[in-house]
Each structure stands twice: as C-alpha cells, then as structure tokens.
C-alpha cells in the first residue's frame, strides 16, 4: 500500500523529503510519495455562478450591483469552487499523484483558522477523492525530528466534515464571501463610482482608525490647576482629594515647603515581555518605514529556509521541546544580533513563556542560524536583518534575568496626605536585551525620593489621544482578541496597499491616515453590523463553536441576511450625511442596457434593464417589449423602503445641460396605485429594521410587537403593527395599532 503526503507548498514538500529520505520512498516500513499544492488551488466562484437552478435573468440580477438583489438567498447557493488562475498545472500534478494511492496524508500547515485544512480538503473534494483512506500529520515545525514523529503518529480521519478545523475554515471562507454584499451596499450608497471594500476585519480597522483620528484631530486642550509638591529629584507629591481649578489664579496659596518622610522601600521585579507575534513584529518595523506586505513576503522566504519559525501562529508561548531545540543556539544568535551572551543567565524554561500547550509556538528565530547579518540581507533582502534582529532579541530577552527595581513610597511631614511614589532601577536584566519605550514606568527615577519638597501650582493637561499608528491599531485588535497576528498583518497590508485602486488607509512610517475612499467608508459605517467590533468578536466565537460541533455553518450564516438588510438602511441614511459633510453629489453609474424590438413601433429599442433598484426579469422584459404593463417591487432611493411600482415602456424626454434628449424607458404609472397580495413589507419602518422572521410574520398577516420604533422627532415608542390595506387606501403598508 502506498500513501501520498499532501503538503501546502513546494518548500514544505522539500522539508518533508529531507526528513523522510526523499520525495518518495519508504519510512517506518511504509511506502510514500510527496506532492505539494501552492497554497489554495480552488476558490469560490462568482455569486452569479452559485445559483442552483437559476435562469439567466436570476444570474444577471445576482451579478448586477443592485440593492434590489440583496440579501442573497444562500439557500439557493451551490457553494461552487473553481480553479484559481494559474493553478491548472499544479492541479494536474496533484491529481496524478493522489488518484493512484490508497491513503492521503494531509500535511498542510496547522493554522489557528484552519486554513491549512481547507487547502487540503478543497483539493480532495474538487478532485472527488473521498473514497480514499485519510490521515492527518500534526507538527509544530518542519524540523526533521518533528516531521518524522508526525508521520509515525499521524491521526486517522473518518471524513472531511468530521474535522473541526475544516468546518471553521469553511465557515470563515463563506462568511467572507458573503461580506461582498456589504462592499456593494457601501459602494452604491456612496454613489461615487468607487469600490469601497468592506469585510469583518477591514471595516473594523477603518472604524477604529476613523474614530481615533477624529479624537486626535478634535482634541481641545482644557487644563486644570492643582496644588502639588516637587522635591529636588523632580518627584511629585499628590493629594488625590486636593481640589482642581479652571485657572491658575484660582488656586489658593496655602502651603509651604516640607520635609519628605520615606515610608517604604520594596524590591520588585518584572519578567520579560511576551514573545512577538507577526502583528507586533510588523508594527515595530512600520516605525522604520517597512510596509506590512514586505514583512509578510520576506518572513515567508526566511521561514521556508527555517531561519525563522512558522509565521501564521496565534501562540504567545513556546513548548518545552521548542525551548530545548533553540537553546543550544542562543549564544550564536546573541552574537549575531549584538547581544552580550553573558546577559543570558536564565537558561531554564520560564513558566510565563514556556508551556506544555500550543502548536507552532510564538514567532522566534529558527534552528538554522545564519552566518552573518550580511548573509541574511544578501539572500532575503534589506528587510530581513531587521526582522531577524527583532525576533532574536524578543527570544533572547526570555533568557535574561528579570528587570529589578526598588519601589519607594513617601509622604510630606507637614502635609501627610501628599504622597510621592517612585521606581528606582537596580538591574536592567532583560531590558538590556530587548527594550521598548512602552517598557518604561511613568514614575521611573534613578535618584529616588528627595529630602525636601516645595509647593507649586501644577497644570494638569488631559493627554491628547495619540495619532493612530499600526502599533496602536494592532494593540486595539489584540486587546479585543480579534484575529491572529498574521491575519491582522495581512489585512492591514491589504487595506494600506499602494497598488489597490481604492485603498482605504494610508501608512507613512507606521502613522495611519484615511484615504479618500477610507473616509467615505468610515462615514458610512456608524451603526452598521459589518463595522461593529462586537460582530467581528462574535465571529471568532462562532468559529470555535463550529470547530467544537456545537453549531453548524448553515445556522451561523443565516444571520448574514439580517445584517445585510439592516446595513442597507443604515448606510443609505449615513450616505446622506456623508454627501453633505464632504460636499459630494452622487454620481450616476452607467446602467446595463437591453436591446429588442418594441411592439408599439416595430423598431429596435435600447433601454435600461433596471429601474429604482429592481432588475427586470426575462419575463418582464418580454412583457415590456410587447407593450404590456408590469407590476413589481421597487426600492425608494430616498428612504430605502420597498414599494409597488406599475408601468410600461414609453417614449420620454430627459433634460441635461439645457438640452433635451428623447429616449425609451420604463415609465411608472403613478395615477393608479398598485395593489394586490404580491406586495412585501418595507425593510424598515420608523427606524426599526425588520428581521427575516418579522417580515415573514407580516406577510402572513400576523401582528407583531416592536419596542424600538423612532418618531421623526427622535422619540422612541412601542407599537403593535401589521401589514395590510388600510381603510381608504389601495395599497398595502405598515399599519400601527396603538389600542
């Protein structure tokens, strides 16, 4: 029996070959052959290709960027995949190997998002190889010993859908696909013929940066004044109960100089900072002018040669095995990056940094130590030495002693309510290896408390919100546990990419500003689901639930339709404010035209296929060309609400630039109100966005109770409503019942 080892990329295939004895052969008594993908070989087809049993008109409507086609009905989706451009040769090569073996061993990367599993299973699924025997190699790195152990102890697999990592990756992939709808909503609402890309992490980044920029820009210095004391060592003594005043002149002059009484001296220590992840690394380098996409590309090349560890990890610690593997190289790494090996006095695993859990381990140097920094630059480019030194110093700091300092506390003899505190450094420890401005304590003072303090009127200035930077943004995302370090970095590289036609953010040496399109996007996002950080945080929780088998992908994706309905209304409302604030006028996009012979004249005509948010179906187009009247549900451009439209093709006149132009197009008949049972409730009424369940109840004639309606004056009220024909009216509409 022969088995095939499927790796994620050729470099991994070479590492496996080196560990097992070649690209094919026998190891541990089993015949094997290695084949490699090149990352993803398949991707989801375009939305219009996903429809099950849909006709040309349905596909055309799905393809059109039109709010009337949203939200998509994913119950009709085939979730069809197509080969990625340029992958056909690799697919053929992989197929030729996998189709001939008895067992397929999945040896793609163990990503925290399950991406490696998705790469392998999508290949197996598309090549229709589910009848094979399957197993999974689980490894923390590509060292020969790790790969050999993973081969011998590989885990049997029953089926694709039994794998939690695949299920969560499949959900994430489908969810990201569905957020294309939000890109369409934002782009259409803005009306600037620009694509405003949205996504669960992109939109959150834009929202966070926009809010921080506004806080930084709109900061107003409003000082307060207070009595305090300062000693000869520049230590301040503060009474938290001391009153504050708006002007310096209001502060009473009631204190005189006083002796300082030392209350305590306490020796304290601080352990080294946690190991870097890819986001932290990229953020540190951004201040040196290194772009995130360059960090990603360079790091990947270094990883393939085992110069650095696996990039896309979410681990913050390393295992004992990983610690022991790298420890023999510590002195060599230290000399390479200019650290004195004598500082590395702690050669035992730290409980804060080394744990018996995790997979790939935190980002760190690899087992292959380069000969020199010049050699690194020569092989991988000018950014590589910067990457290596940051990772090396972060790792080496773990082997250095704790930072030691003395915490001193004292009070004023004459005014004991005034307290002074200071931290006096005693031993640099790990800070001599890997120091950051964030590591300095606010009350650090090398001299300690003084002996005498004098009163002063102290100006208290509220700190100005910092200008957003990559470092700041990565901290915000990490604090909220949104995404892995690698995901944050790759998304940041995407939204700041200089090659994008419509970039959202600009990065200048780590400082972030909004692009023209990012500013528009930010102004559209308030109150949306896609821009809500809570929504993104919940997604990661859902991914964990799907992996655990406590919820299904179908159930988790069902909420997206409600997000879309809500965000259509919210973004259209925000767009009106955006246009006013930025002085923008909506630009009309060119509409798709339909050609045919009009029965009324017997002559060929060309007219728009869409009217007021509705894309005409093939049947409706035939009726219009035949000269007949049609009725359909349209969307009000002003309110975003649906209404019944009735009309036919007619000759009309348009005035533009002082000139009149004749054209043929759909002409609504507002003299006769459309009626009947085909009408559907509006998406929103009095600022409440109806859920899919509520719309279903309204269509079914049920009354529903809502407690968050809002009047035109902004007052919230509750009401029971139904959908029907009110007395004296010929059309269906929302009817409130207050009795």
TrEMBL record:
Pfam family, one: Topoisom_bac
Keywords: DNA-binding, Isomerase, Topoisomerase
Topo IA-type catalytic domain segment(s): 162-569
GO BP term (any one): DNA recombination
GO cellular component, one term: cytoplasmic replication fork
Species this protein is from: Plantibacter flavus
UniProt KW DNA-binding keyword: yes
Domain Toprim per the UniProt entry, residue ranges: 2-142
GO MF, any single term: DNA binding
Protein name per UniProt: DNA topoisomerase-3
